[in-house]
Amino acid sequence: MAGCAIRTYPTGLTVRSRGARSIQHSPGVEGPLDIRDGLQRSLIEMHIHTNPTSSDSMLEIPDLMTIAKETGLTGVNLTEHDKVLESHQQRAIRDQYPGQFINFGMEVSTDMGHMLAVGLTTYLPGIRRVAKLREELDKIGGFLIVAHPFRRLFDPVTAMRTGQKFELTPEEAAERMPVFKFVHAIEVGNGSNTPKENDFALEVARILGLPGTGGSDGHSTSGIGAFATGFANEVTTPEQFLEELHAGRFEAVHKTREGRWVAFTPDSLDPSQRGED
Ligand SMILES: [Zn+2]
Ligand SMILES: [Zn+2]
């Protein structure tokens, strides 16, 4: 089939996409861009903070669910800072949005940065150490994603503060940064990152053969759906969510200005989405 891209995932799953199309590129960009439809049987916001559980967020759950629906997302994975709602609160929220999938994850602050943990039902002692966090998740079949691994590392202010410029190549970062040994996946598309931080994470994930996720990391009504995680199969329960994550049947996706959900690749964002025009 002409123009059809076959993609083999790290776990061995092969997905035939609907065709890598060459689209008209913006002026100033060399050559045709290779952009393909992303997985989108389910589209899940993987990284989002709501008020009041995350005190730094102004986003209320009802607004999140409305915007998610309008954006075309089929579900959300709430990642409150070091917290997860009690099961009766979870049930009450799920009952209000029967057509939308809601998972209650957690963004855990650890000795190796922020981690998106899927499967925890409560904050556990010791998970501030990522090794312990992974150990606890393994006991319950949980899933661990490193969030925004390169945030602010390229920032001159960070270099000034640490007295050291971040000069690793993606190959060196993949090999030397211990955090990647503890995780199942890497957040490659984060709506609150700079394009450079996302590009670097995308390249590191490719080198390591680890799958990538996408999410907005939103703390307000803006930016929801900037990135999402597209799944090959339908995800409507927390059990299916974990099963599909462990099977690697997902990828980071984003919407083009024409409203098409595409896989996040080095070429897939147009200059306006990169803040370059
Ligand atoms: Zn974070
Ligand atoms: Zn966050």
Keywords:
7 helices, 26% strand, globular, TIM Barrel, 277 residues, 25% helix, alpha/beta, disordered N terminus
Supply the helix-strand structural class: alpha/beta
Looking at CATH, the homologous superfamily is Metal-dependent hydrolases
Terminal CA distance = 36 Å
Order of helices and strands: EEEEEHEHEEHEHHEHEEHEE
What do these coordinates show?
This protein has 277 residues and is α/β, with parallel strands linked by helices. The chain has a single domain (36-263), classed as TIM Barrel, CATH 3.20.20. The protein has helices spanning 61-71, 87-96, 130-140, 156-162, 170-176, 195-208, 238-247, and strands at 6-8, 14-16, 20-23, 33-36, 42-48, 75-81, 101-110, 113-118, 143-146, 185-190, 212-215, 228-231, 250-255, 261-263. The strands form three sheets. Strands 11-10-9-8-7-6-5-12-13-14 form a ten-stranded mixed beta sheet. The chain has a two-stranded antiparallel ribbon with strand order 1-2. Helix 2 (87-96) links the parallel strand 6 (75-81) and strand 7 (101-110). It is globular, with a radius of gyration of 18 Å. The two termini are 36 Å apart. The relative contact order is 0.18. The site of one zinc ion (ZN) has 5 residues, from loops.
Summarize the structure.
The protein has 277 residues and is α/β, with parallel strands linked by helices. 25% of the residues lie in helices and 26% in strands. The model is unreliable at 1-31 (pLDDT under 50).
